[in-house]
Amino acid sequence: MNARRWLVLLAALLAAALTARLGWWQLDRAAQKLALQAAIAAEADKPALGNADLTGAALHRRVLLRGRWAAERTVWLDNRPMQGRAGFYVVTPLLLAGRGDAILVQRGWAPRNQADRSQLPPLTTPAGEVEVEGRLAASPSRLYELGEGAGGVIRQNLDPTAFAVESRLPLLPLTVVQTAGAGDGLQRHWPAPDLGLHKHHGYAFQWFALCALILVLYVWFQLVRPRLRGHKS
């Protein structure tokens, strides 16, 4: 075998090894996401935490909290569709009973007024102490946003740390995604967390297919085709 064929063989083997390794890496990422999914489900199956149990609580843990709504600090997160309709996610701080701090609550979804995009839908916020059932998240729903987000009642995103300074509320670095409630007119058909499992499996298939293609092309052009030409001559 001459030097050129050795170089072609080496290049083919390196390319096949690289693409195969990338395929296995994507499968490993998918396995990590499956483990995360199992951990989320395990946290959701544990008993709900109360006001006194929030310190050090894990994300996705169920909570049952008591407190008063800081209704004047309500923020409407724009461009949040639900079941094919345009609308807002409503976020209101909850002043926790028996504590000196508060926590953001992603309360639910409300439809947008298509005729007047600046008009907010009606919202019922009970006065006095309420009970809020939900699960813990790191922050309210976030969308990609260029630059720094604008303030105001209607926003694209809400950063808890910046909002704590703006609102002068002692906010915990957590958010509650409310899962049950009545009488406020909000919907709570929250989408399941997308961990990207299908994406990783799709990428793995593409890398393994490319690896197989490299090997097939090498066998055809370097082994099979020269022999066929030799037989014809």
UniProtKB/TrEMBL annotation:
| Family annotation (InterPro entries) | Surf1/Shy1, Surf1/Surf4
The listed locations are: Cell membrane; Membrane
Extract the Pfam families matched here.
Answer: SURF1 (PF02104)
Q: Where are the transmembrane segments?
A: 204-224
Which keywords does this Swiss-Prot/TrEMBL entry list?
Answer: Cell membrane, Membrane, Transmembrane, Transmembrane helix
Q: What's the protein's topology in the membrane?
A: Multi-pass membrane protein
Tell me the protein family, please.
Belongs to the SURF1 family.
Q: What is this protein called?
A: SURF1-like protein
State the species of origin. Answer: Pelomonas dachongensis
Q: What is the lineage of its organism?
A: Bacteria, Pseudomonadati, Pseudomonadota, Betaproteobacteria, Burkholderiales
